[in-house]
Design brief:
Strands 2, 3, 4, 5, 6, 10, 12, 13, 14, 15 and 19 form an eleven-stranded antiparallel β-sheet that branches. Strands 1, 9, 11, 16, 17, 18 and 20 form a seven-stranded antiparallel β-sheet that branches. By secondary structure, the chain is mostly beta strands. The protein is 7% helix and 31% strand. Bound molecules: alpha-L-arabinofuranose.
């Protein structure tokens, strides 16, 4: 147990610093593809089929060939000002350079995701609901991704993040038919309620069966048994995530590709369908197509027409997921139309973004140096199981034991291999993990909680060079230090920290010190 442990004193001999220098990020190596996505976007396809989009949200690309309006808005922490990110060209991919330059030297939050459908159904950060405090916006830099060969950003939903529009136009209400899809990441999921995109209550409350019609993606198995470990595409129809039929569905085997197309359709009176596919290749699998649940309230449906992203209908906001694009239609799309949309999505070629010059080779030994002007001779150091991790001056003449305490072996992220975990090189076999916003050395205890708390995602360095490390399950925070102790925290302090900590700069990776 961590509680009750004595603060470890990290202050050790301060000697001249050796040659370890912060790694600097270089320009993206990938050659950008065409700025324009395709001659038709998903919403052109749905419109041509008579089931037009009434909501179209994406931070990565325009969803109509002619759309050249804003995709999303970011707000920066330094001065509270905002800017909008547009496509590079009409119908094209997001011009992420706008975000990069606007947010340079500070952090940005996604404050609005614009509706491209012309219905004005923009998503803003969600209000409190019957089962969740007011949401927060996603860290705009948390989810870099390649789309069409371009670096763009998705919406990184960690618990607490959510978006909503309670006053929409054109969205299905009552028993009107609707289709909805989203593209999500198959590797960034959890079992918290509810990583949803779609139709929900206008008062942010659970108003009973059938008051929601949203596509869910994650590992929450509401009606067991579910098949395999998931994640599953399911229908959130309120008071249940339906794998198909009346809840459980042995045919729904889950979708765990890197990028997943998740789709739910509902004719509002008798039938619904659930489909999933690899957003990078192939076609959709229909996991279910048949009668609506027999429990009262679902047939006919009682849709209210609000739109949610990343939360449940009552603002249950303990879910995690990655959102890249999503639409809602008026009418029940045909299979042929969905298939054409899936073909369009595949042309995007969503791929994970690799940090330029990524030094985080699995198995390599690295040290992590503070970039704050006070402390550039200090390294992230941990010596004893259960003790807090802090920053300590380490030099070429430091003791072998201290050098080992400041050396970390890069391992595949314990909960997600697109991120990394840090195992101490001091022979303890312990991992760097967070607990109540502080960082500790702890042995892997095999619990479900340990893995996400010991997984960190490298991001371009907030200080302008090197790398910053975002905790896997807290997308608005980074590894930081204060008073020589290491924390995870957002700008101005972590949300779970009772005493708001003033946090210094993030800690980028440095050359391995084990060689010193
Ligand atoms: O239906 C699952 C969830 O249950 C809904 O999203 C939420 O409103 C309720 O708590």
């Amino acid at each position: 147990m961590i509680g009750g442990l004595v603060l470890r004193h990290l202050r050790k001999a301060v000697l001249a610093i050796g040659a370890a220098a912060a790694l600097s990020a270089s320009a993206l190596a990938a050659v950008p593809g065409p700025a324009q996505a395709a001659t038709s976007g998903p919403c052109d396809i749905y419109a041509a089929a008579g089931t037009p989009c009434v909501a179209a949200h994406s931070t990565t690309r325009a969803l109509y060939a002619a759309y050249d309006g804003p995709l999303y808005q970011v707000k920066r922490a330094s001065d509270g000002s905002t800017t909008d990110v547009y496509p590079l060209t009409a119908g094209g991919y997001a011009n992420a350079a706008t975000q990069t330059s606007f947010c340079a030297g500070t952090s940005c939050t996604i404050t609005e995701i614009f509706d491209q459908s012309g219905h004005g159904n923009n998503l803003t950060i969600g209000p409190a609901g019957g089962n969740g405090a007011a949401d927060v916006g996603a860290n705009a830099a948390a989810l870099p991704v390649m789309a069409g060969g371009h670096l763009v950003y998705g919406v990184y939903v960690s618990p607490g993040v959510g978006y909503r529009d309670d006053s929409t136009s054109g969205v299905a209400t009552g028993s009107e038919p609707q289709g909805a899809y989203m593209v999500a990441a198959g590797t960034h999921v959890n079992s918290g309620c509810c990583f949803d995109y779609g139709n929900a209550e206008t008062n942010n409350d659970d108003n009973g069966n059938g008051h929601m019609d949203a596509v869910y993606f994650g590992t929450l198995c509401w009606f067991s048994p579910c098949v395999g470990p998931g994640p599953w595409v399911q229908a959130d129809l309120e008071n249940g995530l339906f794998s198909g039929g009346n809840g459980n569905n042995p045919n729904n085997k889950g979708n765990n590709s890197q990028f997943v197309t998740a789709l739910v359709e509902n004719n509002g009176t008798t039938t619904y369908a659930i489909k999933g596919g690899n957003a990078d290749s192939g076609s959709l699998t229909t996991w279910y197509s048949g009668a609506l649940p027999v429990a009262s309230g679902y047939a006919p449906m009682h849709q209210e027409g609000a739109i949610i992203l990343g939360v449940g209908g009552d603002n249950s906001n303990s879910s995690a997921g990655s959102f890249f694009e999503g639409v809602m239609t008026a009418g029940y799309p045909t299979d042929a139309t969905d298939n054409a949309v899936q073909t369009n999505i595949v042309t995007v070629g969503y791929t994970n973004y690799t940090l330029p010059g990524n030094p985080f080779t699995i198995g390599s030994e690295i040290s992590l140096r503070a970039t704050t002007p006070c402390c550039t001779a200090d390294y992230l150091t941990g010596d004893t199981s259960g003790d807090e991790v802090g920053i300590t001056s380490v030099t070429s003449s430091s003791s072998p034991a201290l050098k080992a305490d400041a050396t970390w072996i890069v391992e595949p992220g314990l909960v997600n291999s697109s991120c990394i975990s840090f195992k101490s090189a001091n022979g303890s076999g312990d991992y760097l993990r967070q607990f109540y916003s502080e960082l500790y050395l702890e042995p892997q205890n095999g619990t479900a909680q340990f893995a996400p708390y010991a997984t960190f995602c490298p991001r371009a360095g907030n200080s302008g060079s090197g790398y910053s490390f975002m905790p896997y399950n807290y997308g608005n925070e980074y590894i930081r230090h204060y008073n020589s102790v290491a924390y995870i925290a957002s700008d101005g302090g972590g949300p779970r920290s009772s005493a708001r900590k003033r946090c210094a700069e993030s800690i980028p990776g440095t050359a391995a010190m084990s060689a010193m």
